[in-house]
Write a structure and sequence with these properties.
The chain is mainly beta. The protein folds into two domains: 140 residues, no CATH class; 99 residues, no CATH class. Helix content is 10%, strand content 34%. The strands form four sheets. Strands 15-14-13-12-11-16 form a six-stranded antiparallel beta sheet. Strands 1-10-9-8 form a four-stranded antiparallel beta sheet, with no helix packed on it. The longest helix is centred in the N-terminal third of the chain and has 19 residues. The protein is globular. The protein starts with a helix and ends in a 51-residue tail after the last strand. This is DUF1684 domain-containing protein. It comes from Microbacterium gilvum.
Length: 287
């Protein structure tokens, strides 16, 4: 199947397309208020939390997250300016919102979200030293041998699938619509998939024999194009990328579902980052 899907591939153009895709991916990753700008992960409860590098005193309860801002502090949500006390209402699981602030000349943002049944806040600052020092992620040289025809096999109904998290004690549940099968290096493999970000696309979370050696130990992910009416699609491991947890302890990324560890080494896509943000103490769900 791998040879057949690549038989008419213009490999020079394929390499150029990959370079353009990865360059754009790195630009999004290094956004001034993206994941590389996160300065902390704070679990909310009824006990107020003061953020050391962003405005507000934060709590949560049955009515969702609440912020209390001091005089002179403000946050922006879209076109709305927030001052004083503001209740955001209950957040949906995996839902959230992003608030903007300024600290002198520095732009900042606060992500308010719900993950694994917990409300969290994660400040981001455009002056984060880790963001300023980021020099890109190493990759394997793209090679069409890691691109294969695949077949999407839907389940009769989406299957709620519990997966672990980069944070100890945190669990995520995603509805898996099916699995994909593909041949690689003369073997047939099957991976559980989740809905992708773009309509019709699928997301794969996986590890393989390179994980913890040349690639990030916990997970990598890639997007599979929308299958046609017969379930035919293509899986291209050259476009396997790291999730935010490869770069920071302050991420809550999901781990691959059971069965999504490939026994072969996928020498394609992104490698282990050159540096990461480490928390002062272990990041785990509050007791």
């Amino acid at each position: 199947m791998t040879a057949a899907v690549n038989a008419t591939l213009d490999r020079a153009q394929y390499g150029r397309d990959w370079e353009e895709w990865h360059r754009a991916h790195e630009e999004r990753r290094a956004d001034p208020l993206g994941f590389l700008a996160i300065t902390g992960l704070h679990w909310l409860s009824a006990e107020p939390v003061d953020l050391p590098d962003a405005p507000g005193r934060w709590t949560t309860g049955a009515d969702g997250p609440v912020v209390q801002l001091d005089a002179g502090e403000e946050l922006r949500l879209g076109g709305e300016t927030i001052t004083g006390r503001h209740a955001f209402g209950p957040l949906a699981e995996r839902g959230g919102l992003t608030l903007a602030f300024r600290d002198g000349e520095v732009e900042g943002a606060i992500e308010v979200a719900r993950r694994g049944g917990f409300d969290i806040v994660r400040p981001r600052r455009a002056d984060h030293p880790f963001l300023a020092a980021y020099a890109g992620t190493p990759t394997y040289v793209p090679n069409a041998r890691w691109r294969a025809a695949a077949r999407y096999i839907p389940f009769d109904a989406p299957v709620p699938t519990e997966v672990g998290s980069a944070v100890d004690g945190l669990l995520h549940v995603y509805d898996a619509p099916g699995r994909i099968e593909f041949d690689l290096q003369g073997e047939t493999f099957s991976l559980t998939v989740f809905p992708g970000h773009a309509p019709g696309t699928l997301t794969v979370l996986f590890t393989d024999a390179t994980s913890g050696l040349t690639t990030y130990a916990a997970n990598r992910t890639l997007t599979v194009p929308a299958p046609d009416e017969d379930g035919a699609t293509v899986i291209d491991f050259n476009r396997a990328v790291n999730l935010p947890c490869a770069y920071t302890d302050f991420a809550t990324c999901p781990l691959p579902p059971a069965g999504n560890r490939l026994p072969v080494g996928i020498e394609a896509g992104e490698k282990t980052p050159l540096a990461r943000v480490q928390a002062d103490a272990a990041v785990a769900v509050p007791a």
